[in-house]
Task: inverse folding
């Protein structure tokens, strides 16, 4: 056994077994479990099956074994010709590998090196959770994801009583698994049991088992008990269970009333919170609130992120046209359209992250589209200030508009230069740590959309000409700041 354990610890968790027709803790032999959502149910613009595959792949899993039932043909079609698939997908029909049969897990255990992940197809989770499980599972222990029903865990899964082991640290626990039926739990470790299950967390349908334990259920007296449940109980007896709280990453079971809708809403909210660190105040408290509504609409329309980017650009350029006549009413319409363009601009990134469709081309397109809109807005405001207002038919608004446009183009070149520096470590070494931090700060805030609300306020109070002057000066201040920070990389070495 010691040799087996040493062998298991030398392998990182590289294999995931994906259950499409049952949950990890479902017992299909007695037929008492509630129906599971179809793996073809769409959540966040993708089927649950697609989302599971791409999340596992993004988390570092390179081999995915799919235990599929009658829906296998439809599931295969969802991955057909998808160039994003890099992991090796192996299809195992449940008529030959039934999940409730211990022999299935004995057979799979023979092909697993080290440990493997087992996950149900009715769960939505983050790639960081997969990465954490891969890291912890490499130690040769059984890993279970735990949480409470109000955190998105299904009450049908077994509960777990956690008792930190002071000799092993808080992550390792003496555990007792407790069924959802109202009956006493089986005591696996010494210690006093409490009968109040509401205080106990639940085990999520996402576990990691070493190969030694994966096929052990055939040795035990199953009596119709779920084989994976028996494997975890054996790991608990041996003190080899480690818990990971899903709330620290993101995990949700979509079973239950409106489960897919709640999962989609929470998934979008979690992605927005990750982006929120780079968002300005207007983005966090206004744009992101409305963009979530539009994002769900775009997902249902199956629009790609690049299409959404182009729509945002078209709306922004159209908004610029309303500034040209110089009237207060049309300028206000233009400001509102510009704000709509900004909100739509939030959606392309949200859709890309939700559907794992991020691409280098999409990033470049987004940057160029934003700058085209900004240039069009400056041109429209300059023309409007020339045709009406206190600067009527003077050269000042045209000069300021041209200055703002040139500064925008210069800042675009500098920002692209700074972005490309990330892939050139030799040039980065020529800069101080403080300079690198400033560059990251500027790059993080260069797409700040808060100035859209300034445009709206200026249009509302009829002072767009003053905004144009401030924008021209502010743009050149940003260009000079960026150029000063990048000076070591802009000047050729002798």
Result:
């Amino acid at each position: 056994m010691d040799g087996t354990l040493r062998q298991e610890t030398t392998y990182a968790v590289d294999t995931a077994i994906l259950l499409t027709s049952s949950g990890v803790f479902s017992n299909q032999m007695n037929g008492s479990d509630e129906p599971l959502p179809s793996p073809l149910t769409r959540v966040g613009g993708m089927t649950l099956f697609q989302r599971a595959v791409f999340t596992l792949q993004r988390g570092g899993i390179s081999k995915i074994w799919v235990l599929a039932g009658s829906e296998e043909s439809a599931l295969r079609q969802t991955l057909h010709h998808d160039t994003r698939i890099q992991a090796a997908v192996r299809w195992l029909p449940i008529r030959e590998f039934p999940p409730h049969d211990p022999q299935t897990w004995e057979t799979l255990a023979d092909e697993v090196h080290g440990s493997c992940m087992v996950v149900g197809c009715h769960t939505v989770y983050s790639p960081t959770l997969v990465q954490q499980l891969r890291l912890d599972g490499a130690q040769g222990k059984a890993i279970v994801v735990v949480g409470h029903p109000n955190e998105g865990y299904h009450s049908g899964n077994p509960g777990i009583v956690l008792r930190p082991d002071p000799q092993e640290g808080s992550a390792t626990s003496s555990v007792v698994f407790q069924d959802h039926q109202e009956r006493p739990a089986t005591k696996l470790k010494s210690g006093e049991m409490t009968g109040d299950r509401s205080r106990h967390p639940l085990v999520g349908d996402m576990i990691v088992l070493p190969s030694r334990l994966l096929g052990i259920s055939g040795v035990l007296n199953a009596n119709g008990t779920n084989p994976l449940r028996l494997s975890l109980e054996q790991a608990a007896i041996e003190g080899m269970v480690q818990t990971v709280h899903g709330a620290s990453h993101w995990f949700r079971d979509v079973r239950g009333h409106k489960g897919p809708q709640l999962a989609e809403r929470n998934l979008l909210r979690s992605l927005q919170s990750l982006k929120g660190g780079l968002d300005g105040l207007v983005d966090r408290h206004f744009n992101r609130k409305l963009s979530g509504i539009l994002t769900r609409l775009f997902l249902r329309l199956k629009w790609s992120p690049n299409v959404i980017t182009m729509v945002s650009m078209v709306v922004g350029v159209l908004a610029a046209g309303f500034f040209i006549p110089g009237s207060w009413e049309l300028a206000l319409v233009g400001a509102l359209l510009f704000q709509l363009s900004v909100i739509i601009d939030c959606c392309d990134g949200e859709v890309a992250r939700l559907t794992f469709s991020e691409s280098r081309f999409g990033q470049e397109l987004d940057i160029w589209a934003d700058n085209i809109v900004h240039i069009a807005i400056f041109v429209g405001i300059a023309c409007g200030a020339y045709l009406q207002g206190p600067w009527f038919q003077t050269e000042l608004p045209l000069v300021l508009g041209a200055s703002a446009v040139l500064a925008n183009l210069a800042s675009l070149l500098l920002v692209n230069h700074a972005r490309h520096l990330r892939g050139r470590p030799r040039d980065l070494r020529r800069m101080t740590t403080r300079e690198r931090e400033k560059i990251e700060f500027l790059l993080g805030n260069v797409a700040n959309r808060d100035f859209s609300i300034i445009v709206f306020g200026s249009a509302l109070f009829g002072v767009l000409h003053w905004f144009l002057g401030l924008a021209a000066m502010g743009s050149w201040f940003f260009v000079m700041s960026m150029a000063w920070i990048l000076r070591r990389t802009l000047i050729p070495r002798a």
In short: Residues 1-10, 28-32, 166-173, 181-197 have pLDDT under 50 and may be disordered. The chain has two domains: 2-260, 279-490. Residues 212 and 449 are 54 Å apart (CA to CA). Residues 279-490 form a domain with the Four Helix Bundle (Hemerythrin (Met), subunit A) fold (CATH 1.20.120.1760).
